Amino acid sequence: MAAKVFKMTEAGKAELVKELEFLETDGRNDIAEKLKIARSYGDLSENSEYDEAKSEQAKIEARINELRYQLDNCVIVESLDDDSVSMGAKVSVVRKSDKAKLTYEIVGFSQSDPANGKISDESPVGRALIGKKKGDTVVVEAPIGNIEFTIKKIER
Fold first, then answer.
1. If pLDDT is split at 50, 70 and 90, which confidence band does 81 have?
2. CA angle, 131 as apex, 129 and 133 as ends, to 5°?
3. Model pTM?
C-alpha cells in the first residue's frame, strides 16, 4: 500500500516539527515523571493515577508516530502565482446570502483547524477557492444547499 502524501506549506511543516520536538522531549519527560509518581503509590492493579498516566503515554506516542509519518510523507507546496488562491494563501471572501465577511487560510489536510480559519485544500470550500482570483465568485455545494462566495482579497 502506498503511503499517503501530505501536502503542506513550509510554515505548516515547521509547526509539525516543533510539535514533534516538544512531544519527544518535554512530553515524554512529563509522562515519565507522572508514571514514576504513580508507581510510588504502590499496587498498580488498582492505581487509577498509573492507568491514567499509561493512557496519556499511549496518546503521546500515537501522536509522535502520526507526526513522524506525516513529516516523512510530506510534500511542500508553494504558490507560483501570487494572483490566485493556493496553499498558504489567506483568502478574504464575502458570503453572498448574508454579506458575511470571512477569512480562510488554505492549508494541508493535516493542519486544518476550521475553528481558527484554517481550512484544508481538500475541503469543499478549499477546493472551490483553489486557483481562483480576486473578484471571482465560487459556488460551494453544502448539505444546506449551494453557498456562493466572492473573493475580495488574497494574501501570502
1. low
2. 80
3. 0.73
